[in-house]
Every structure is written in C-alpha cells, then in structure tokens.
Specification:
The chain is α+β, with helices and mostly antiparallel strands. The chain folds into three domains: 82 residues, no CATH class; 68 residues, no CATH class; 127 residues, Trna Endonuclease, Chain: A, domain 1 (3-Layer(aba) Sandwich), CATH 3.40.1350.10. It is 29% helix and 32% strand. Strand 10 and strand 11 form a beta hairpin. Helix 6 runs parallel beside helix 9 and helix 7 packs parallel to helix 8. Bound molecules: zinc ion (3 copies).
Length: 326
C-alpha cells in the first residue's frame, strides 16, 4: 500500500510487521498499545513483542513508527533503572540525611490548638487517650482540639530528627544503593494510531479487501500482502498477488497508490517496475486513486504495467473487473 502523502512513510508500509500492527488497529479494533508492568524488567508491550518475536526490537520499532507520524504517544509513566545493572527492580528507601541509615521512624506532628504545643503523636497518647503533654487537657476532635502539623522523622541509628528524609534507591537485583542524581529515568508511553493515518489506511484496507474478493470470485488464490522472491533472491512485497493454482506461473500482482493530493506521482510506477522486473509476473496492475501523473502513465505503458485510474473505490472496482475479463 503506497501512502504517497507522507514522504518518509511509503517504505515503512512495506514492512510486514508494520502491516500486522496496523491491522490490529484496523481489523481487530485495538485502540491503543498499552505497556504492561513486570516488577523485574519494567514495562513492556506484549502485543508488539508477539509481532516482532524479539523484545529488544520493540522500542526501536515503536520509535520508528512514532517518528514517521503513524503512531501518536502519550506519557504513561517514568521508570527508574539501576545505573549499574540496568534492572528496573528498584526499591525506594527513605533514609536519615545525617547517617544515611534507612532505619528511620516516621511520626505525625500534633499541635494542641488551645495552648499551641507541638510534639510527635506518640507523646500525645496515654492509655489509648489523647492528652496534651504540656497542659494535660484531653483532646477529642481533630481540627477542633488539635491538628496535624506535619511529619517528623527520627533515626533509630543515630537518634537525630529531621522532617525531610533523604531518598536512596536500592537495586534489588545487584544491591547497589544510588541517589536521584545517579539514577537513570526512562519515559514510558501509551501509543495510539494517528487519526489521519487511520482514515487513509482504512480506505486502503477496504479497497484491498474488495479487490481480494473480486479476484477470489474469479477463481484466483489471493495473497495479501504478498512477499515474493525474485530471480535475484531478494524478497518483494506487493499489496496483492493472485494465481489460479500453485503450479500456475501466470501470476498477477497489484499495488495500490491512493493519495489525497490531485495526482499520484510516477514513484509507485517505478517501484512496481523494479519489483516485477525481478519477480516476472504475467500481469501487473497499479491502481491509482484519484489520477496518475502524465509521466507516470507514460512509464506504466513503457513498463507494461496496467494502470487503473479511478476517482474512488467503486470506479476502481468497476475498471478492474472489466480489465480482468479482457
Ligand atoms: Zn542493579
Ligand atoms: Zn541517622
Ligand atoms: Zn496543651
């Protein structure tokens, strides 16, 4: 399928994995590619992994589709990685800023509103009742008799007190301690298909699906998309390849070039020619919607490519049907 509007995109659409991913959005109505959290390895994308078969390829693959404007992304989370072993199995330790021990006790600070005395919660509690340690008055109602005045920490190692603990990360994998300055943070995204790509692809998808039906009605076996090996040994991808039976070498191939511009350039003609030169099918079709450039038409004639120009899907189907009968 040739998306002639986006300069960088056409070759990306020829990638079988990209086609499978797009079909998830278009055929299976998947709405987004969401990351799934694994406590040991961090976030991953099982759906994309199942397409690529290799987890290490998932990130570059999604980055490529995002850069080409096929996918949009939204920040989903940020993950901390160990600077030493790259593990995402990280624990946060609130520690004493004086001796760095994580053996600290966190208490609430309470203020007796009437006398203004402030102390840690424990000092207000006496035989399950709340009393002000200074004026001994019993405190019953929060925000009437007393209020929470913040947090106070005490270190059980060095006995010092502080209000803001030091945050130290521990890698559960290699047991390395590291601070915020040393940690590696990676953004994690949720991906969706770009709306105009979806609309265009849906149109192309529906044209290809209809052509497949027409060919099947005429007794053809249809592959779509089809990867065919040429004489050179290279693989070539066509939107559709059709043949009567496996032994029959009289195969027809077809590419679709739809654009929302006025004309389709000669580029898809050149690309189709390069492929059929190597694959040698009986017949090659290029469906150009809405129109093929003059240069493209001349080249198609020279290269013996049957160019079908059509303003829309219905017109394309009607001319293709007529053409298959001759
Ligand atoms: Zn580590
Ligand atoms: Zn301490
Ligand atoms: Zn008091």
């Amino acid at each position: 399928m040739q998306n002639t509007d986006k300069k960088e995109a056409p070759s990306i659409y020829k990638d079988r994995n990209v086609q499978i991913l797009l079909s998830k959005f278009l055929d299976e109505k998947v709405e987004s590619i969401e990351p799934v959290y694994d406590p040991k390895t961090g976030y991953h994308y099982p759906m994309v992994e199942s397409i690529l078969g290799d987890r290490s390829q998932v990130e570059p693959f999604l980055d490529k589709l995002y850069a080409a404007g096929i996918l949009e992304r939204k920040l989903y989370d940020k993950v901390i990685f160990c600077p030493k072993c790259d593990s995402a199995n990280i624990s946060v330790r609130y520690s004493c800023p004086f001796c760095k021990s994580f053996n600290i006790k966190k208490s609430a600070l309470i203020e007796h509103i009437k006398c203004g005395y402030i102390d840690v919660e424990d000092n207000f509690l006496e035989e399950d009742l709340c009393h002000c340690p200074k004026c001994k008055e019993q405190l019953k109602k929060v925000d009437v008799d007393y209020r929470k005045a913040g947090i106070w920490c005490t270190c059980d190692e060095c006995s010092k007190s502080f209000d803001i603990p030091l945050v130290i990360n521990l890698c559960r994998n290699c047991r390395t301690n590291f601070t915020f300055e040393e940690c590696v943070i990676k953004d994690v995204y949720v991906y969706t298909i770009t709306e105009n790509i979806k609309t265009e692809s849906l149109l192309n998808w529906s044209i290809i699906a209809t052509i497949r039906e027409i060919l099947a009605e005429k007794g053809f076996k249809v592959e779509s998309p089809a990867i065919l090996k040429g004489k050179s040994g290279a693989n070539h991808s066509f939107d559709i390849a059709a043949y009567k039976d496996a032994d029959d070498k009289r195969m027809i191939v077809l590419d679709l070039a739809a654009t929302s511009q006025k004309v389709v350039s000669e580029q898809p003609v050149i690309s189709l020619f390069a492929k059929i030169f190597d694959v040698s099918p009986e017949k090659a079709y290029l469906i150009a919607i809405p129109k093929l450039s003059e240069n493209g038409k001349k080249m198609a004639e020279l290269y013996k490519i049957t160019a079908i120009e059509a303003r829309n899907q219905e017109e394309a189907m009607a001319s293709l049907k007529k053409n298959l009968e001759t």
